[in-house]
Structure formats: C-alpha cells, structure tokens
Amino acid sequence: MDFATLFQAFSDMTFVSFCQHMVNGISLGSLYALIAIGYTMVYGILLMINFAHADIVMMACYFAFFGIRIFQIPWFVTLIGVIVATAVLGVVIERCAYRPLRDAPKNSVLISAIGASFLLENFANYVFGGRPLRFPKISLLAQNISIGDVRTQFICLCIPVVLVVCLMVLLHIINHTKTGMAMRAVSKDYEIARVMGVDIDKIISITFVIGSSLAAIGAFMWGVRYPGITPYLGVMPGLKCFIAAVVGGIGNIKGAVIGGFILGLGEVLIVAFFPALSGYRDAFAFMVLSIILFYKPTGLLGEKTTEKV
C-alpha cells in the first residue's frame, strides 16, 4: 500500500463515485459527531468519561422501535418521545450512578460508569432478548433520491442538516444563556462556581439532558441508516464516538464535530481507495487515536489542563 497504489486507486475512481463516497462519509461523520458531543460535554463538566453514553444510544433505538412498531405511533411523534425518554434515562443514570460519587476518587466514578454501561446492556438483553431486531422502515427518510448521477437515501442528506441545526442551538445555549454561562463556569472551576452560587447538581443534570437528547437524535437516524438493533449496538459506535471526541479535543464541542468527520470520512474513503482493507475498517479509528495521542495528546482543539485534586 504505497503512493503509487493510492494514485492508481484515485485515478480509477470516477467523479460520481467519489461524490457518492463523500456523501456517505459526511453522513457517517455527522452521526459520530452527534453522539460524540455527549461524551465531550460530560467530560467538560465533570472531567469523567460517561461510558454509559453508548448504551443510552442503544436504549434510544429500542425506544424508537417499540414506539413505531409496537405502539404504531407516527415516527415524528415517536422521535419526540424518544428524546424525552432518553433525556430522562440520562438524568436517572447521573443521579444513581454518578451523583453519589461526586466527591469520590476518579477511579470510583470510572468504575461506576462502566457498571452503568454493563447494567444497561444486560437489562436490554434480558428484557428485549438477544435476537437482532430490525428498525422500522420510515418511507420518507429511507427513500432513494438522485442528485445528478449520485444516488443516496434521503436520510443521508438529513443527517448533516440535523447536526448543523443541533450544533447551532447548542452553541447558542452555551454562549448566550445564563445556563450556558453556568456550564462554562463549572467546566472551568467546579468549587469556585459552587461558591459563586451556581447550582452544580442542576447544571450537571442539564448537561446530561442535552447530551442524552443529542444521543437520541443520533440513535434514531442511526436506526434508519443501519436498521439492525441488538443489546450491544452501542459498543463499537460508542468507542468510535469516544475516539472522535478525543481526536478533536475532549471537552471541546467543535473538536468533537471535527473528530467525527475525520473518522466518518476516513472510514468510508479508506474502503473506497483500498477495498481489500474493508475488513479493517474499524481499525482506522484506533489508528487515528494512536497517532493523535502520540503527536498531540490533548486533541486537535484541546487545551492543556492540570488535574484537580
């Protein structure tokens, strides 16, 4: 796999084929970015990794499945319900698994996060069964459309638009509201923010609500794009979204988006240029993580911080 092979693969690829791959890569990268924002927000506030976030995505897919398939609720109404239910789940996890350990050592919180992840996976396996379920087909979003000679699903065009809208709303909340000001204060100095009158518990709950809501939106679109649902659905996407957050600079929202696009485009294009490496597609994310940690451990947009003791 040298430059000559890469050049030959690029020259053999038509413009239409390249555009097709770019559409798929941007769509996948947008999904990674939506979910990665949840990781980076929790870390920015609590300086901890919410390992249960990936399983919140999985639970959101099951919520959507039962809402549409079992209860026959229209998909747009189900989406709202999924966002609410997932936000509530995120708050419950924060209050049960993280809040009691607020002043405990970091290792204790980390173990609790991993335990919450295993609990959700085994709960889903026991209640919903291990047999894969198929996400309900939504005709409007799953329909094939053509832009010139490029053919894709309508959902692939919706995902980047949804990401941009969610990102604009989130940045407005963080930069232009009192809640956002409090979140920034807590992320800078936990104790000083408490002394200045910031309700720490409320701000952390709001952070989990926002992160879980974005995870719900991402999960719904993930289900439409990749219909298979299992109790371990969130494991690999969760790892990749966590890597996206680290690559961009964990704690930095814009960095999480950039990291998501790097992974999404990289995964699609490496298979496009080197089809023989399609079996190693998942390894690309870990390769990028290794390179970033070696050359820039804080991530592309991350800042150097000191550990609070």
Indicate the radius of gyration in whole angstroms: 20 Å
Major β-sheet strand ordering: 1-4
What would the principal axes of the Cα set say about the shape? globular
Q: Given the structure, what is the number of helices?
A: 13
Write down the overall mean pLDDT: 88
Biggest pleated sheet: 2 strands, antiparallel
Percent of sequence in beta strands = under 5%
Ends distance: 47 Å
Number of structural domains: 1
Overall strand count: 4
Instruction: Determine the structural class based on helices, strands and strand pairing.
Output: mainly alpha
The parts where pLDDT drops under 50 for at least 5 residues are none
Summarize the helix and strand pattern as letters: HHHHHEHEEHHHHEHHH
What's the topology here?
Blueprint: H1 3-12, H2 15-46, H3 53-70, H4 75-98, H5 106-128, E1 133-134, H6 139-142, E2 144-147, E3 150-153, H7 154-176, H8 178-188, H9 190-195, H10 200-225, E4 228-229, H11 235-248, H12 253-273, H13 283-295
Antiparallel strand pairs: 1-4, 2-3
Structure description:
A hairpin with a 2-residue loop joins strand 2 and strand 3 (150-153). The chain has helices at residues 3-12, 15-46, 53-70, 75-98, 106-128, 139-142, 154-176, 178-188, 190-195, 200-225, 235-248, 253-273, 283-295, and strands at residues 133-134, 144-147, 150-153, 228-229. It has 309 residues and is mainly alpha-helical. The chain starts with a helix and ends in a 14-residue tail after the last helix. The strands form two sheets. Strands 1-4 form a two-stranded antiparallel sheet. A two-stranded antiparallel sheet has the order 2-3. The protein has one domain (19-142, 152-161, 202-295). The mean pLDDT is 88. It is built from 13 helices and four strands.
